[in-house]
């Protein structure tokens, strides 16, 4: 679901306690971050440009929602292979996942469910943990609802003491340790997979797509028209925003332009956004409608 532009700005404002200057700096730095990290390339090149084992193994994936309607992101660190995923490659996986989350979330948040079953020291790479924590706190503000950690082995206490030394406070405050049974306090049994004592029979089953399945549309004359339309709509939206700031009653006109921007995004997305596992399996339709 494509969100209203205001809701994105509100996330930054909330993250900085409604300090407009601090929120502006945070938003500016996020834009720089995504540009420097090649976010546009990540969504355009898609899954075939990523290391495959995190996708194939079920290391990290979205499925279903919690009791508050937030999307659930499952994470199984036992599948992590640090030697195959240095930060520069791991970062692309995280950005890819969060990009899909952007389409799935709308104005909702994400609950991360971390199953530490089978974890060993060979699965731990602190630089990757820090990257994931930092990107959530600094570049996807007010997106994280909670992190539920369960099945922690005895070795995790020493691992956790290291992680907490650099974990962003925003993320740290949302971490909750629980038992597998406690998950049902946050996620309905019909949303939890059978493997976690739920009743949902869905099984994550990623298959590497063909080039055709993962390709964006050729950027033809229609693409150029949509890009020109988007530029025109963006300027019009900014103009109405200025009128609104000046005290004019233009809320309806402004919201109508926001809706047109959303519709434009839906039409433009196949040209710039590589279809993902979530598109191929019907979880994301029309690039702005989520179905779990």
TrEMBL record:
Domain (CRAL-TRIO) ranges: 47-204
Protein name, UniProt field: CRAL/TRIO domain-containing protein
InterPro entries: CRAL-TRIO_dom, CRAL-TRIO_dom_sf, CRAL/TRIO_N_dom, CRAL/TRIO_N_dom_sf, PITP/CRAL-TRIO
Superkingdom per UniProt: Eukaryota
PROSITE patterns the record matches: CRAL_TRIO
């Amino acid at each position: 679901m494509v969100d209203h532009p205001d809701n994105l700005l509100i996330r930054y404002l909330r993250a900085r306690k409604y300090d407009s200057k601090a929120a502006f700096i945070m938003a500016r730095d996020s834009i720089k971050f995504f540009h420097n990290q090649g976010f546009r390339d990540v969504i355009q090149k898609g899954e075939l440009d990523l290391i495959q084992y995190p996708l194939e193994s079920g290391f990290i994936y979205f499925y279903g929602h919690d009791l508050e309607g937030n999307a659930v992101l499952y994470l199984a660190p036992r599948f992590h292979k640090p030697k195959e995923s240095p930060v520069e490659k791991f970062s692309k996986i995280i950005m890819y996942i969060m990009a899909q989350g952007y389409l799935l979330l709308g104005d909702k948040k994400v609950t991360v469910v971390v199953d530490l079953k089978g974890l060993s020291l060979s699965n731990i790479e602190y630089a990757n943990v820090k990257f994931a924590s930092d990107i959530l706190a600094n570049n996807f503000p007010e997106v994280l609802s909670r992190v539920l950690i369960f099945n922690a082995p005895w070795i995790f206490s020493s691992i956790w003491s290291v992680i907490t030394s650099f974990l962003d406070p925003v993320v740290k405050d949302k971490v909750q340790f629980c038992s597998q049974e406690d998950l049902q306090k946050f996620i309905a049994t019909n949303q939890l997979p059978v493997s976690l004592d739920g009743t949902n029979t869905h099984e994550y089953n990623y298959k590497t797509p063909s080039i055709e399945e993962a390709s964006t549309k050729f950027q033809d004359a229609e693409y150029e028209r949509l890009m020109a339309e988007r530029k025109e709509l963006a300027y019009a939206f900014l103009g109405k925003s200025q009128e609104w700031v000046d005290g004019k009653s233009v809320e309806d006109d402004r919201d109508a332009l926001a809706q047109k921007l959303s519709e434009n995004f839906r039409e433009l997305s196949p040209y710039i956004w590589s279809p993902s596992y979530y598109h191929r399996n019907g979880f994301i339709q029309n690039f702005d409608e989520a179905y779990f």
